[in-house]
């Protein structure tokens, strides 16, 4: 721990009359620096549910890259659909508007459906991403939660998960 006397000596050695004078100069610069960093550092979102367990528990903080980088199969993305809560789910594949995506999906995540006509949001009502929570039994779009996740809804890829309980950090591959 640095003593007040040491701080005063350092402050006086660089041209400040007192520690108070130094802090008066330093605080605005630190504030501006934090504001600049906020523009480039990732931001966090609290996971609303446990639909991504065991990787992500409800309440964990999801740190995402705010739109930098391309989204690809297997990424966990944060998105804010107008008819659903802001959340983070795994991307399975991208579809085009009007596409019959039934044959591209893993049948174990489609319930009892035997074709596109038996699924909600198939054919795809819009271009976007087909998603699924790791802990959910069905694909979100097949279950009728919402249509394919539009590009403009995606806020970024999750790059780290901060555990709500122990503050452990899990880094996801980029």
TrEMBL record:
InterPro entries: LexA/Signal_pep-like_sf, Peptidase_S26. GO terms for biological process: signal peptide processing. GO terms for molecular function: serine-type endopeptidase activity. This is Signal peptidase i. It comes from Haloferax mucosum ATCC BAA-1512.
């Amino acid at each position: 721990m640095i003593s007040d006397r040491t701080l005063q000596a350092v402050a006086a050695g660089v041209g400040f009359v007192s520690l108070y004078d130094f802090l008066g100069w330093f605080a605005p610069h630190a504030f501006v620096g934090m504001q600049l960093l906020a523009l480039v550092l990732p931001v966090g979102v609290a996971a609303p549910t446990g639909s991504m367990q065991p990787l992500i528990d409800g309440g964990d903080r999801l740190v995402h890259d705010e739109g930098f980088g391309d989204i690809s199969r297997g990424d966990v993305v944060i998105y804010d659909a107008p008819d659903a809560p802001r959340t983070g789910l795994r991307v399975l594949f991208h579809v085009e508007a009007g596409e019959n995506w039934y044959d591209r999906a893993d049948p174990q995540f489609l319930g009892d459906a035997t074709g596109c006509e038996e699924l909600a949001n198939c054919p795809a009502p819009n271009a976007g991403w087909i998603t699924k929570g790791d802990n959910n039994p069905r694909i979100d779009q097949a279950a009728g939660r919402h249509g394919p996740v539009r590009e403009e809804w995606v806020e970024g890829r999750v790059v780290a998960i901060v555990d709500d309980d122990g503050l452990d950090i899990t880094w996801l591959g980029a």
